[in-house]
Design goal:
29% of the residues lie in helices and 22% in strands. Strand 14 and strand 15 form a beta hairpin. Among the domains are: 145 residues, Rossmann fold (3-Layer(aba) Sandwich), CATH 3.40.50; 110 residues, GMP Synthetase, Chain A, domain 3 (2-Layer Sandwich), CATH 3.30.300. This is Long-chain-fatty-acid--CoA ligase.
Length: 573
């Protein structure tokens, strides 16, 4: 191992109160939840719009639901699918699955028939908890193709008493003869509780599916160790305490949402504020209402807030611990967010396979920008985490300032992919997670993601990282979103194309943007083509779907895919 990785200079960047290593003091996530339950049973555990549920209420509801699961046939190690938006039932169902000795399967509520069928088959789930609207639109059709032994339905209005938000005014409660009703199961099993399940740190707690931006989704096996550790790590890193209010704008099915929301909430005893699905108006209004102190979201969440016409009407000063993760952050956007909120926006980095954060900018520090690539630092390895950057060709450590693949090792690395031993062996070797991200490290231990290895463009033999081009585009005052891909070029092999969404009320021509980039980038890097879109296609967690952009190009130029260097436009596994 190279000297810099052995010496760990990043530890000097930590706040004095942050330890290099923390202990895992619970045997499973339930124990972590129950510690906060004992300490503050009558304090809010979940905030849902303006309503709330106490720790005691959440405990009682989840115990009743767990009893129902067992009666309905759930066995130890059985899988419970959670096909819900960010509603209280999500957290209650997850806890109930563990109380019954099962595994929670996190399902994106945007999945359609074919996608949901794949996830159900892959996970082998026996119980599915879903929204009534999703049953009608999707699940009822999937049941004709795939066996789902038990389906439990609920709706977004449950647990609301103070106000029906605009986004939910069209919701009508519906019952289905072929499904069990969530509320009725809770009522029937109220007051019941099961014997404490035997759950170890090494047991799989949930399956969190990779976003599938470049290939078939894989179920990452997040263990109780992974979740407990990162819940404690987040709490320690940002000093969450009794006076903090956690907001979860990230979807709970995504690892960022489930760790920086519920897991951090259980570890700290703080309430977690949910608002069904992201809406900029509700986001801003509920920050002010609850006086939210801590939130983590993809940069697209903050961009949407910046674009809200009434952002200046809201008091956002309570947010003193604000992180962005899940998608790249440009220095230009970071500055805009900080001006709007009046506090620093810190950057964190993690993957599904690292159970969310594994690097972050220490609280109180300014994230440096790499002078060569213009990339904003993703911070330093967090508590208990080791990192290496290795050559893709030799697999050996590279020195500081040299790009290579980022490898991560720590207690939050998943045990593998569900029923995919070959994929697991490729991704995790001797405990080291191969992230697939091109990164560099500086002398202080700050890391910079240059780009994804699979997204690299080779133009005239030169390497171009889309992220670098995107960061320059974000410097233009009219650009709201930007995503860059490589497209076939008869002379250069590949050339750079940018897809751009403009801020409302702004105008700029393709040529003006090309000239803007030309002044700031090397000749082989600036985009030769720019296409304007109303918005860039993205996952629910905020990651841009370059695969969809490549597929769009391939449909326009179907023969081009036959002779594309490095398979540029083909969807990459």
């Amino acid at each position: 191992m190279s000297n810099i990785y052995f010496k760990k200079p990043w530890l000097k960047e930590y706040e004095p109160s942050v330890k290099p290593n923390i202990d895992i003091k619970y045997n499973n996530v339930l124990e972590m939840f129950q510690a906060s339950l004992r300490r503050k049973p009558n304090s809010p555990c979940i905030g849902y719009f303006e309503d709330s549920l106490t720790y005691q209420q959440v405990d009682q509801e989840s115990s009743a639901l767990a009893s129902a699961f067992v009666e309905l046939g759930l066995k130890p190690g059985g899988r419970v699918g959670i096909y819900l938006q960010n509603v209280p039932q999500w957290m209650i169902t997850q806890l109930a699955s563990w109380k019954a000795g099962g595994i929670a399967v996190c399902l994106n509520p945007m999945l359609k028939e074919r996608e949901l069928s794949y996830h159900i088959k892959d996970s082998g789930l026996t119980i599915l908890v879903c929204l009534e609207s999703l049953y009608d639109e999707v699940v009822s059709k999937v049941r004709n193709q795939v066996d789902i032994p038990v389906v439990i339905t609920t709706n977004e209005l449950l647990y609301l008493s103070k106000r029906i938000p605009d986004m939910l005014k069209g919701v009508v409660s519906r019952k289905f003869s072929s499904c069990h009703d969530y509320s009725q199961l809770i009522r029937v099993h109220s007051g019941q509780s099961l014997a404490t399940p035997v759950l170890s740190l090494d047991d799989t707690a949930m399956l969190t599916y990779t976003s599938g931006t470049t290939g078939v989704p894989k179920g990452a096996c997040n263990t109780h160790r992974n979740i407990v550790f990162n819940g404690l790590s987040v709490t320690h890193w940002v000093h969450l305490g009794d006076n903090d209010i956690v907001m979860a704008p990230a979807p709970l099915f995504h690892i960022t949402g489930s760790i920086t929301g519920p897991a951090a909430g259980y570890a700290s005893g703080c309430p977690v504020i949910l608002f069904c699905r992201f809406d900029p108006s509700e986001f801003l209004r509920l920050i002010e209402y609850w006086k939210v102190t801590y939130l983590v979201g993809a940069i697209t969440v903050f961009i949407a807030a910046l674009s809200h016409p009434d952002i200046k009407k809201y008091n956002l000063s309570s947010v003193v611990k604000m992180y962005s993760g899940g998608a790249p952050v440009s220095a230009a956007i970071q500055k805009q967010v900080e001006r709007a909120f009046g506090n620093k926006l810190y950057v964190a980095y993690g993957l599904t396979e690292s159970t969310a954060p594994c690097t972050a900018v220490p609280h109180g520090r300014d994230a440096p920008v790499d002078p060569n690539y213009g990339a904003l630092s993703i911070g330093v390895p967090t508590c208990n985490v080791d990192c290496r950057i290795v050559s893709a060709e030799t697999g050996k450590d590279v020195p500081e300032g040299t790009p290579g693949e980022l490898l991560i090792k720590g207690p939050q690395i998943v045990s593998g992919y569900w029923n995919k031993p070959e994929e697991t062996a490729k991704a995790i070797k001797n405990g080291w997670l191969h992230t697939g991200d091109v990164a560099i490290i500086d002398s202080r231990g700050y890391l910079y993601i240059v780009d994804r290895i699979k997204d690299m463009i080779i133009a005239s033999g030169f390497k171009v990282y889309p992220r670098e081009v995107e960061d320059v585009l974000y410097e233009h005052q009219a650009v709201k979103e930007a995503a860059v891909i490589g497209v076939p070029d008869p002379y250069r092999g590949e050339t750079v194309k940018a897809f751009v969404a403009l801020k409302e009320g702004t105008k700029v021509s393709e040529q003006e943007l090309v000239e803007f980039c030309k002044k700031k980038l090397a000749a082989y890097k600036y985009p030769r083509q720019i296409e304007f879109l109303p918005e860039i296609p993205k996952t629910l967690s905020g990651k841009f779907l370059r695969r969809e952009l490549r597929d769009l190009e391939l449909k326009r130029h179907p023969k081009a895919g036959d002779n594309i260097p490095n398979g540029t436009i083909r969807s990459r596994a």
